[in-house]
Design goal:
Length: 323
């Protein structure tokens, strides 16, 4: 008989919208416990996931979704490591990450942190009113001078091709020179993306519709909570991978970091600068306060082995998942 599943439901709270696809400030999810191991189920209905209650109801009936299947895989690996008394990060290197900008926090303290800690890049969420994004990036470029961080922008496909080209055409030169890549600028179309790449000399990263990708992009975004990087690496053998958190619970964040570390070990420099440091986007709690990432170097939590957080996880109230 398989081990029973126990759950602990949680809420993450942000001070501002986290992307152009959602105006939410409260994000429900659930930690699962199977035997000695833990996983995280953190759906984003805005991106096509079933809501949390439906995810858990299906899991209680023995039916998995892509999210719950990966959470169970996480719990299995985590539990094996905890039982062996070792960290899952032992012998692995977590790739460095960009700084995920929080529009809920004051600008100057964040920018001072980026410069003082030496973060290699800032990633900002882009908005349909792209002028706001341009002004933000220009302000960053102005304050940092000639040696500041690179810029990454994720539009979540909220623009169209013409609007995106205007965004590039009319941005200040000092911003253009710092622009590292743009993620999902508008709904994926290989020919239209290729036109933008060639005409404007910009690097594009594909997240949504990655399975359909046949060209017109320079990198593929992988959220390990949502898809296995191994399948993505096989589907796109000639492209770099950028692994990121799913803006989920710190346990899920550490799972993404562990998968990114495994990907780096297997693929080398195909795994470049990642996006694993998202803990500061949410109001602090006992988990988030333990996540440190100076200069984009995420430090694993080793408490209890596995993915860490052992004493905090043990202190939570859990209930058995039943149909």
């Amino acid at each position: 008989m398989s081990d029973p599943i126990f759950i602990h439901e949680y809420l993450l709270r942000s001070g501002a919208a986290l992307n152009s696809a959602s105006q939410r400030r409260v994000f429900p999810g659930a930690l699962i416990r199977v035997g000695a191991g833990y996983g995280c189920v953190h759906p984003w209905p805005e991106f096509g996931d079933a809501p949390l209650d439906e995810q858990l109801a299906a899991l209680a009936r023995g039916i998995t979704t892509p999210l719950t299947a990966l959470a169970l895989n996480c719990a299995a690996a985590d539990g094996a490591a905890r039982e062996a008394g070792v960290s899952l990060f032992e012998g692995l290197e977590i790739p460095r990450s960009h700084y995920s900008w929080s529009f809920a926090q004051p600008t100057m303290p964040q920018f001072d942190r980026v410069l003082e800690d030496g973060w290699p890049a800032i990633k900002a969420k882009g908005w349909a009113n792209y002028g706001e994004t341009t002004r933000f990036l220009d302000n960053c470029a102005r304050m940092s001078g000639d040696s500041g961080p690179l810029f990454r922008v994720d539009f979540n496909a909220c623009l169209d091709a013409d609007t995106f080209q205007k965004f590039i055409e009319f941005m200040p030169l000092r911003v253009y020179r710092r622009l590292d890549l743009v993620e999902d600028p508008f709904p994926y179309d290989a020919a239209a993306w290729e036109v933008c790449r060639v005409r404007w000399g910009v690097r594009l990263a594909l997240d949504k519709r990655w399975q359909e990708g046949v060209g017109g992009f320079d990198a593929v975004v992988v959220k390990p909570a949502r898809r296995d990087w191994r399948a993505v690496a096989v589907r796109h053998p000639g492209h770099p991978l950028m692994l990121t958190s799913a803006m989920d619970h710190p346990l899920g964040q550490m799972f993404a970091a562990w998968e990114a570390a495994q990907a780096r070990a297997a693929l080398g420099e195909r795994v470049g600068l990642c996006g694993l440091c998202t803990q500061h986007l949410f109001e602090p709690d006992a988990f988030l306060e333990r996540v440190l990432s100076p200069g984009g170097e995420l430090r694993p939590d080793t408490d209890g082995g596995g993915l860490g957080f052992g004493s905090v996880l043990e202190s939570l109230p859990w209930r058995r998942l039943e149909a």
